[in-house]
């Protein structure tokens, strides 16, 4: 400890210095307040022993200036005084004094007081260092958060480019959002949207958004199907995230014409297809586990498809909306969410969030709040250079037996082969959807003889896919034939998918019946292909897809 003795009497300074040096203290001396302030400015002093009555600058003024100049860390001031009146003591305390020592000096009392104030000084120094360290880390954290926030904003915020189709709200519970809303347009004009909710909230939850967004935008730019995007995002998250983290998500694709939607739903609350008044036309229930849980061989790629028109909207929300609580602990819940959607014509995301906030009535936000209202409007395709289509005609065919049907999913491999042909890569999404729907219909309803009505029951999807797995395991003596022909003169692709199943009744020409008997995707196929026909037995589908339709 370094002690400064300030006294205009040399004898007092000498006496105090000898007593303190014997106690192993470092001692400096000053004859008045001006000298004391000069020493304090040059050296680190831990305790000041200050006389009251001095020339040039007395102890009262000196104490006041010391406290003003050195207020970051507590610097104890012990007044040296021969005064006995209470008013003098009060004046010393008002000036900044912390204690008193009476003249003549008592060595025992002096030593005790210095030891007591040295402990206070050390504690103050330690606290000051800790505060400086905390301030440093706080500033570092703030800087890092600014950098990360900048990266997140540039990586994730693409929604504002599609204001006609997307009305969204993202409200994080902390600085970083564990929810993400990704929007992108494929080369052929389809509009994709992914609403995701990572486990928890804050920075730890948000870190998965960067790799997920990179996969999403990369695959959208390649025109990949929704099922491919879900599969690839899942593979990345399984590899990167710890076991307790995952991402509940809904991924949708709206065709460029605005007439059809494909969706993969994994773990988020129910989505709703609504009209302009907010009435629910269709409830879209989650069919799959969240992304980042299942390994690739277990992952479920199945999509749902349905037709829409310009009067319809899709309402997607994370569980932060329905799990918002009020002061009584009640949840906002699904029914209030549905009522909020119907609270006014063409309701906006801000209208809905305002009702959620009003319901919470000041309760602290516990989770990220995210809402997307997706308008099913036509989306003009982005301008692209005209594709250089191959001028060579070709056709190929493959026949799959029971064993091959069980062990392979040929659609993706076929699409990979086709998109190597000049000009076909830009049509990858449509080609995949045509082949996938036709092949899966041939397998599920033709070869396996499954009934789609099972899906309409409660937990029907689970029952359907359990039955599918069991039936497929027992499959024998079955065939699926895929034939593809490319005609460069008309810039057309012709697909024929034939199965060894019983087909459906040829006397029933109703399109809805065909859709029910032969699978969910007939309307989607007719939307994409120029022509879709079945043979008389109902176990063969022929499709003509015109490439030139995408050049308008």
Automatic annotation (TrEMBL):
Concerning SMART domains, the annotation shows: PP2C_SIG, REC
Transit peptide keyword on record: no
Q: Which PROSITE patterns match?
A: RESPONSE_REGULATORY
Which SUPFAM superfamilies does UniProt cross-reference here? CheY-like, PP2C-like
**Residues with PTM 4-aspartylphosphate:** 51
UniProt entry tagged with the keyword Iron: no
Taxonomically, the superkingdom here is Bacteria
Domain Response regulatory span(s) in chain numbering: 2-118
Q: Name one Pfam family in it.
A: HATPase_c_2
Annotated membrane-spanning segments are none
Q: Which InterPro entries match?
A: Bact_Sigma-Reg, CheY-like_superfamily, HATPase_C_sf, HATPase_dom, PPM-type-like_dom_sf, PPM-type_phosphatase-like_dom, Sig_transdc_resp-reg_receiver
Keyword annotations:
Hydrolase, Phosphoprotein
- Protein name in the entry: SpoIIE family protein phosphatase
């Amino acid at each position: 400890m370094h002690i400064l003795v300030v006294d205009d009497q040399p004898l007092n300074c000498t006496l105090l210095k000898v007593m303190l040096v014997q106690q192993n203290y470092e001692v400096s001396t000053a004859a008045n307040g001006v000298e004391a302030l000069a020493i304090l400015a040059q050296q680190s002093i831990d305790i000041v022993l200050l006389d009251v009555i001095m020339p040039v600058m007395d102890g009262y003024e000196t104490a006041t200036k010391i406290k003003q100049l050195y207020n970051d860390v507590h610097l104890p001031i012990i007044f040296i005084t021969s005064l006995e009146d209470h008013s003098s003591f009060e004046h010393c305390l008002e000036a900044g004094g912390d204690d008193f020592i009476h003249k003549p000096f008592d060595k025992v009392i002096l030593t005790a007081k210095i030891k007591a104030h040295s402990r206070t000084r050390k504690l103050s120094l330690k606290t000051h260092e800790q505060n400086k360290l905390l301030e440093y880390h706080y500033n570092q954290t703030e800087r890092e958060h600014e950098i990360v926030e900048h990266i997140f904003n540039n990586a994730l915020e693409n929604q504002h480019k599609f204001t006609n189709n997307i009305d969204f709200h993202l409200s994080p519970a902390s600085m970083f959002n564990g929810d993400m809303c990704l929007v992108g347009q494929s080369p052929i004009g389809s509009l994709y949207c992914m609403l995701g909710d990572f486990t928890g909230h804050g920075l730890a939850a948000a870190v998965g958004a960067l790799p997920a967004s990179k996969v999403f935008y990369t695959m959208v730019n390649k025109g990949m199907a929704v099922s491919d995007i879900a599969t690839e995002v899942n593979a990345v998250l399984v590899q990167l995230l710890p076991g307790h983290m995952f991402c509940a998500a809904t991924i949708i694709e709206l065709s460029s014409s605005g007439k059809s939607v494909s969706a993969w739903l994994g773990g988020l609350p129910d989505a709703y297809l609504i009209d302009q008044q907010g009435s629910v036309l269709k409830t879209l229930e989650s069919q799959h586990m969240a992304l980042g849980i299942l390994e690739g061989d277990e992952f479920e790629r199945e999509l749902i498809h349905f037709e829409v028109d310009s009067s319809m909207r899709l309402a997607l929300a994370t569980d932060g909306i329905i799990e918002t609580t009020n002061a009584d602990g009640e949840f906002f819940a699904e029914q209030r969410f549905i009522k909020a959607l119907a609270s006014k014509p063409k309701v906006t995301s801000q209208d809905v969030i305002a009702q959620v906030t009003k319901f919470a009535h000041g309760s602290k936000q516990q989770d990220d709040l995210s809402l997307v209202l997706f308008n099913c409007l036509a989306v003009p395709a982005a301008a692209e250079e005209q594709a250089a289509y191959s001028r060579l005609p070709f056709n190929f065919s493959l026949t799959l037996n029971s064993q091959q049907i069980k062990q392979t999913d040929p659609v993706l491999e076929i699409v990979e082969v086709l998109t190597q042909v000049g000009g076909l890569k830009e049509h990858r999404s449509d080609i995949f959807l045509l082949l996938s729907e036709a092949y899966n219909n041939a397998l599920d309803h033709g070869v396996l003889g499954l009934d789609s009505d099972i899906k309409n029951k409660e937990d029907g999807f689970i029952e359907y896919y359990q039955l599918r797995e069991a039936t497929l395991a027992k499959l024998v003596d079955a065939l699926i034939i895929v034939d593809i022909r490319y005609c460069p003169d008309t810039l057309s692709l012709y697909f024929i998918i034939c199965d060894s199943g019983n087909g459906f009744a040829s006397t029933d020409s109703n399109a809805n019946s065909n859709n029910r008997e032969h699978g969910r995707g007939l309307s989607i196929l007719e939307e994409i292909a120029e022509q879709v026909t079945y043979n008389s037995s109902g176990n063969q589908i022929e499709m003509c897809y015109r490439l030139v339709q995408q050049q308008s």
